[in-house]
Amino acid sequence: MMTRLYSSTVLGVEGVEVEVEVDFRPMAEKRTFIVGLPDTAVKESGQRVDTAIQNSGLPFQQGIFVVNLAPADLKKQGPGFDLPIALGMIAGAAEKLVDASLWCIIGELALDGTVRPVQGILPQVIEARRMGRKRIMLPHANAHEAAPVHGVEIFPVSTLQEAWELLTSAALPAPFTAPQKAGDISEANVDFDEIKGQAYARRAMEIAAAGAHNILLSGSPGSGKSMLAQRLPTILPPLNREEALETSKVHSVCGLLKRGNGLVTQRPFRAPHHTISDAGLMGGGNNITPGEVSLAHNGVLFLDELPEFRRATLETLRQPLESGHAIISRASGTMTFPCRFMLAAAMNPCPCGYLGDRRRTCICSPAQIARYRQKISGPLLDRFDLLMEVPAVDPAMLAAAPSGECSASIRERVVAARERQQKRYAGTVIRSNAALSGKALHKHCRLRPEGQAILLRAVEELALSARAYDRILKVARTIADLADSAEIQDHHLYEAVQYRTFERSLRE
């Protein structure tokens, strides 16, 4: 007797439907064969499932069970097939015909029959809906994660006994519903009003947020670089539903959605240590998983102490920053992960950190300073839209200066600028000024002859690259949007150029 059920697995950050076919033949001995390119966790399902069925008091017979996971050329990984395999084996042993065509069944089994949670539920439920499965059976602990997907009914189960009764019941209980909750990933109790002084740096952060621009901050220790970067997510526009789903899928695959939470609605803020490996930053591993660049999708990736990162690791960022995708190629296959993020980075001006400081003397030699700065390549510098120095704040100002403008107030201007961009780029794939390129850049950043002369003179005097030329145009467009100006004015260009003057000292 053969039973066919439907489950799912994850390929990259996308779900893929898998047919679970279980064939049973009564025999004097008990043997289970699992075929269909299973990994070790799937191969071990036989032992877990056998014990779980018997400990649950469900129908069990001696015989040969052949479990086929189709399509056979797709690698199956993880313990999420335990529950559908067990239900197929019970149906065979009980000689009961089961209609599971509307079901997608996912779950790991403990030896006592308890259904345990699995990673990557959200993309699997989305795929199940696309394939026409109307009912989702999954672990109770994953119910909130699946709840935001519209168009399917969620039926959480806690035990194998409960799952069997649900599958064979003539009258289904009411499906699970839950109020949508924001994931608490990257939530921080910080605000821009905690930063005193640094008006120039605050303005740069506002421009970066308004146009989704990459920004590099340089300054001596304690000047406030990290404080500024950590508060960048607080002035970004809230995630819309599409962005929330995209972000949540990545965090779901990595198991970072906390139990009891639905979609991630806070923009991610990822700050990996400078000792991170290439695979940790970009993604990889034996079972290829997303890296920090993908976990920062639709949010901020902050690299503190930028020159302390290995140069080879930093160079891997160049292609994702341009394309918005991280492509990981291994012998086992190629995966593509989304990684459209804002890059914020901070660095000291020299190894000791006090070059140019008014209160402390730098002890670094010119050769040490050159080696330190050469760790950041010219092509990577070109991918920052704003580069600026953050001077140390006078202690007297810290004590006397009033609190700065709060994040909510800044966010209002940022959201207004983003709305102007969305209206301008309606009907295209462009989401922000930072994504402008080619014909779209020249169409939407057209300059008057006077402005063109200003920009060409700046590029020549600062010895900037063609890519830096485009970056200045994009930043000027954002400054104009913040000012609600349809055209880029000369003073917008002058301000945009100021955010590239620091580049010359980094290249010297």
UniProtKB/TrEMBL annotation:
Origin: domain of life: Bacteria
Domain AAA+ ATPase as annotated: residue spans: 211-394
Pfam families referenced in this protein's UniProt entry, alphabetically: ChlI, Mg_chelatase, Mg_chelatase_C
InterPro entries linked: AAA+_ATPase, CHLI-like, Mg_chelat-rel, Mg_chelat-rel_C, Mg_chelatse_chII-like_cat_dom, P-loop_NTPase, Ribosomal_Su5_D2-typ_SF, Ribsml_uS5_D2-typ_fold_subgr
Protein family per UniProt: Belongs to the Mg-chelatase subunits D/I family. ComM subfamily.
Matches recorded under NCBIfam families: YifB family Mg chelatase-like AAA ATPase (TIGR00368)
Protein name: Magnesium chelatase
